[in-house]
């Protein structure tokens, strides 16, 4: 009897889960534009996969609309059965919840006292919709600043990709200097990109997750037509209560232990002031690390793991797999290295070569400080990151943006120019966002699928000339060989070997042409190392200087955000 009850409960749970996860928001991009009077025009781009199990006749988005906020000017464009493209919907003055799916098709309106945006989805399946409306009195005037704490996304179903971008109209530029920002309800980033604040969750935003953004802006930037009935300190504290913000300054037990030991060590070194003692300590520490490395059988375990994965001497792999990404491949190398892993600047080297291969960046040789030096010219400048890009594409988009901004009006990046640009505080949010992309996540399934092939590619490139092979001329493939040569630190070696095997490649490829201009040995690596060290140092200094409770941290909090206006669920019904 107990077995039957358990089986029945499991079946009911499975059915319930399947129904709850019926409809999925494939992507949701919210663009909010703040106006001088404190109002905000919002444009939402939805791509929804609608399931007949939980989406009945309409799609709705709930708004709390507290603190005197109003919602007006609703318009919707989207899918209408039998018509092509995005069709303007009819906005009804009264929304009938009981109307049929066919009656609601091509129509939109407000329900629940004007607090729910509703539209008829027309039919099941994957469709696109663009929703526009205006929130009045969103930005309020407080005693010390102007600001708001608003929930922009709060859905009852999964959102696979979401992003909220907040800008300002009327020639108002949001920046690190005049705006403090926080984000709640998700794990991810909240950063400045140009004059915008961008909130982006990592991965899928599960049901119950939300994107709440709080901005504190200097007085004088706005002239809100609404006065808050509480102080900003109280409003901010309500949001920060229970959040991850403010925890960065609290040291754990082991952090205190390490700090005390370091202080004692510094005191001993100061009292002794004996160079010989310092050398002895350093040698002892090195020997201790080496002894632990051997005793722990780390090299043996790594060797057995590599053998089990199929990594072997003389095994070559000549293709570049479509699922490969530079960052995750670094994870593979790090986890299977005997001693040290791979430095992040190798990733930047590979990214630079990809940008050269696509013609976005090229090498020029110009005079600098009385000498001819190799430099980077930005051929296709950009001041934004392509939000639709993923993996290596997103990394390249970030890198191209940084190179463009750092290169100045002449779009030529001189040897010290990036380092100087990194020292400017206004650029720190860009740098933190870029450096965070270089950190791989452990993925054992990815490692198992790709480890043998990746190390096979390294051996293939290392023995390029010895193989004496000349494959069918494919510029794209040979470009990728050069990219992974940079990834493994073999750029100059492989370039010289390519000259012997396939000299015409250097003439046909934009990447080959750029590398032929460079005369300085290891030019790509030196430039990449300079870019990485400057970016990571600036990002680290900015993080250590900043206090998260003051709105300078670039990551969000999965909790907190109390007292927000807006939000309250949504989905199909």
Helix proportion of residues, in percent? Answer: 25-40%
Shape: globular
Rg, please?
A: 28 Å
Strand content is 15-25%
Given the structure, what is the number of helices?
18
| Biggest sheet record | 8 strands, mixed
Can you tell me the residue ranges where pLDDT is under 50 for at least 5 consecutive residues? Answer: 1-21
Class derived from helix and strand content: alpha+beta
Strand order of the largest sheet: 5-4-9-2-1-12-15-14
**Number of DSSP strand runs:** 20
Average pLDDT figure: 84
N→C terminal distance: 37 Å
Q: Layout of helices and strands, plus pairs?
A:
Blueprint: H1 2-20, E1 24-34, E2 40-50, E3 59-62, E4 70-78, E5 87-88, E6 90-91, H2 101-104, E7 107-111, E8 116-119, E9 125-136, E10 140-141, E11 146-154, E12 162-168, E13 179-184, E14 188-193, E15 196-201, E16 210-217, H3 232-240, H4 253-272, H5 275-295, H6 298-309, H7 326-335, H8 344-357, E17 361-368, E18 371-378, H9 391-407, E19 412-413, H10 417-422, H11 428-437, H12 444-462, H13 464-467, H14 475-487, H15 491-501, H16 505-508, H17 510-517, H18 523-545, E20 570-572
Parallel strand pairs: 1-12, 6-7
Antiparallel strand pairs: 1-2, 2-9, 3-8, 3-20, 4-5, 4-9, 7-8, 10-11, 11-16, 12-15, 13-16, 14-15, 17-18, 18-19
Helix pairs in contact: 7-12, 8-9, 8-14, 8-17, 8-18, 9-11, 11-18, 14-15
Tell me what you see in this structure.
The protein contains 18 helices and 20 strands. The chain has 573 residues and is of the alpha+beta class. It has an eight-stranded mixed β-sheet with strand order 5-4-9-2-1-12-15-14. Strand 10 and strand 11 form a beta hairpin. Helix 8 crosses helix 9, helix 8 (344-357) crosses helix 18 and helix 14 runs antiparallel to helix 15 (491-501). It is globular, with a radius of gyration of 28 Å. The two termini are 37 Å apart.
């Amino acid at each position: 009897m107990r077995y039957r009850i358990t089986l029945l409960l499991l079946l009911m749970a499975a059915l319930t889960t399947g129904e709850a996860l019926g409809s999925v928001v494939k992507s949701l991009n919210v663009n909010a534009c703040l106006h001088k009077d404190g109002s905000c025009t919002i444009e939402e781009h939805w791509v929804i996969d609608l399931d007949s199990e939980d989406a009945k006749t309409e799609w709705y988005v709930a708004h709390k609309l507290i603190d005197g906020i109003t919602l007006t000017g609703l318009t919707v464009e989207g899918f209408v059965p039998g018509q092509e493209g995005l069709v303007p919907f009819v906005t009804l003055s009264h929304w009938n919840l009981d109307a049929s799916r066919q009656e609601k098709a091509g129509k939109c309106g407000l329900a629940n006292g004007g607090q729910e945006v509703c539209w008829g989805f027309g039919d099941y399946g994957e469709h696109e919709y663009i929703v526009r409306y205006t929130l009045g009195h969103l930005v309020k005037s407080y005693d010390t600043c102007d600001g708001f704490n608003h929930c922009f996304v709060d859905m009852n179903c999964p959102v696979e990709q979401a992003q909220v971008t907040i800008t300002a109209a009327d020639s108002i530029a949001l920046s690190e200097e005049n705006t403090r920002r926080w984000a709640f309800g998700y794990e991810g980033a909240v950063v400045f990109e140009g004059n915008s604040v961008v909130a982006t969750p990592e991965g899928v935003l599960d049901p119950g997750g939300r994107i709440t953004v709080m901005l504190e802006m200097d007085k004088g930037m706005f002239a809100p037509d609404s006065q808050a009935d509480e102080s900003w300190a109280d409003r901010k504290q309500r949001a920060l209560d229970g959040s991850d913000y403010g925890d960065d300054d609290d040291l754990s037990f082991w952090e205190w232990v390490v700090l005390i030991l370091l202080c004692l060590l510094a005191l001993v070194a100061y009292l002794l002031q004996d160079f010989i003692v310092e050398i002895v300590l350093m040698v002892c520490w090195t020997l201790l690390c080496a002894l632990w490395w051997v005793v722990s059988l780390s090299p043996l375990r790594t060797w057995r793991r590599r053998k089990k994965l199929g990594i072997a001497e003389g095994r070559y792999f000549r293709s570049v797999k479509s699922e490969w990404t530079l960052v995750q491949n670094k994870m593979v190398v790090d986890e299977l290295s005997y001693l040290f892993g791979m430095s992040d600047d190798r990733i930047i080297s590979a990214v630079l070569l990809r940008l050269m291969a696509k013609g976005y960046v090229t090498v020029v040789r110009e005079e600098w400080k009385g000498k001819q030096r190799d430099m980077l010219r930005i051929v296709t400048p950009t001041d934004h990151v392509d939000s639709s890009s993923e993996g290596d594409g997103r990394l390249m988009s970030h890198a191209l943006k940084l190179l463009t901004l750092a290169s100045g009006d002449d779009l030529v990046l001189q040897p010290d120019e990036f380092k100087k640009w990194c020292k400017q505080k206004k650029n720190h949010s860009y740098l933190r966002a870029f450096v965070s992309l270089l950190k791989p996540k452990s993925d054992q399934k990815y490692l198992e699928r790709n480890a043998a092939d990746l190390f096979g590619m390294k051996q293939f490139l290392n023995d390029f000339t010895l193989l004496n092979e000349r494959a069918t001329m494919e510029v794209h493939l040979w470009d990728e060989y050069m990219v992974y040569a940079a990834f493994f630190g073999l750029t100059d070696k492989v370039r010289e070997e390519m000259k012997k095997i396939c000299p015409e490649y250097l003439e046909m490829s934009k990447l080959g042409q750029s590398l032929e201009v460079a005369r300085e040995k290891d030019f790509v690596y030196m430039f990449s190392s300079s870019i990485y060290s400057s970016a990571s140092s600036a990002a680290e200094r900015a993080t250590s200087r900043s206090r998260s409770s003051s709105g300078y941290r670039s990551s969000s909090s999965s909790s907190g955000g109390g007292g927000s206006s807006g939000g309250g669920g949504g989905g199909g019904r």
